[in-house]
Amino acid sequence: MFMGYIPIHIRHNPDITPLSKVVYAEITANLDEKGVCIKANSHFSKVFGASKQTISKAITQLRENNFIGVIIERDDDYKFKKRYITPLQFASGVNVGGDSQKFGGGGYRQKTGYPQKGDAVIDEKVPLSDVEPTLDDGGYAKNDEAYYSNNITYIKHIPVVENYNKNINEKQLAFLKNIVADFYKTQHKKYPNIIKSDWHKDHSLTHGSVNTLYDLIKIDEWNELKVRDTIRWAVTDEFWGKNIQSLKTLRNKSKNGNSKFANLYLKFDK
Question: DSSP per residue over 206-236, as a string?
Answer without folding.
Answer: HHHHHHHHHHHHHTS---HHHHHHHHHHHTT
